[in-house]
Design goal:
The chain is of the alpha/beta class and 384 residues long. The protein folds into two domains: 7-16 and 261-383, Aspartate Aminotransferase, domain 1; 19-258, Type I PLP-dependent aspartate aminotransferase-like (Major domain) (Aspartate Aminotransferase, domain 2, 3-Layer(aba) Sandwich). It has helices at residues 19-29, 41-61, 74-88, 104-115, 133-139, 162-171, 232-236, 243-258, 260-278, 307-316, 336-340, 345-349, 362-383; strands spanning 7-8, 68-71, 95-99, 119-123, 144-150, 175-179, 198-202, 213-217, 284-286, 297-302, 319-320, 351-355. Strands 2-8-7-6-5-3-4 form a seven-stranded mixed beta sheet, sandwiched between helices.
Amino acid sequence: MRRSSTIYLDHASGTNLLPEVKRRISEWLDSDVANPSSIHQEGRRSAADLDEARTSIAEVLGCKPSEILFTSGATEANNLAIMGTAEALRDKGLHIITCVTEHPSVLESHKTLEKNGFQVTYLKGDKNGDVDPEEFRASITDDTILASFMWVNNETGLMHPIEELAAIARDRGIRFHCDAVQAFGHIPMQMQNSGIDSLALSGHKLGAPAGIGVLYLRKGRAISRKSFGGSQEQNVRAGTQNHIGAAALATAIQYHTTHLDVNTKKYVELSDHIQNQLKTLPGIQINRQGKQYTPNILSCSFRHLDGEALFIRLDMQNIAVSNGAACSTGSQAPSHVLTALGFDENLAQASLRISMGIESSRHEIDDFCGELKQIVTSIYRDSK
């Protein structure tokens, strides 16, 4: 019998609007709206809202407001940072370094650059997918201009040693970009004294609406624009700004900063609770091996299990989880992250990414584990 209520454990793909964000949007709905680039009074009020959001985010990230650029999301921010930086520095070198387990928006940016004459080194990392700082250091050549690594892997929750990697890049005079989409709200971030030159954030992973993101770009770092029209966003990204989206994102960022400690404590407790229950399931392996992981994302796999049957039955029970990046939905290919970790196709397709949000509870976890146990046991029984 199908469940009447949804168990939602796919917050790494997208999460509900925060109550604080809903209130901010409601305030906006009752106000006059104008193009923030307009010179009349209404336009100036909209521009002031935009400036307020920019300043608020800059204060959290420890940078200048002029270093905060609003985008349509992290995909655009990653594309702009990687391809824009590479093109701006083309005359200084053509070599770029990244990792095989990066988000598709990062990998596809690098593949596009390869078609345009750049050489890309894809580090494989260790058995967990972690980047070895010494391997990164050894891969740098005199032609290297850029390195790009995510802070937290969006499928496994693995935390890369970003500060160490960024320091190596800074010492070698290499530009350093970081996809921090899954890290913000779990790891404190201060840009001023870091070696990070650019960093991407996404609104709909933080309780803001989809369609808004941030690119932090350190002052003085050259970048080629990829959209043309007006001179908005430091003349880097043309187009009328989504100022309500920016205000909503600033509100969400402030919330996660204020509640970082209490939310982290909650996620750690939920992570321990769910792992203790999952370990009792037949054929399961928890995809964590002694490294540092963010507590809200957990990857697990089932040996010798029909992955397609698993997801069909989970969906039939109104259970929302995933087995990879949401942008890859619809693909029959196994997760590129799990494949890079050495998983065979069957094991990769019988893998779950369980991601929790601020609304997640022990009761929801208990319901999920109970349903999952019945489903997995039934599939194993039917396969005999």
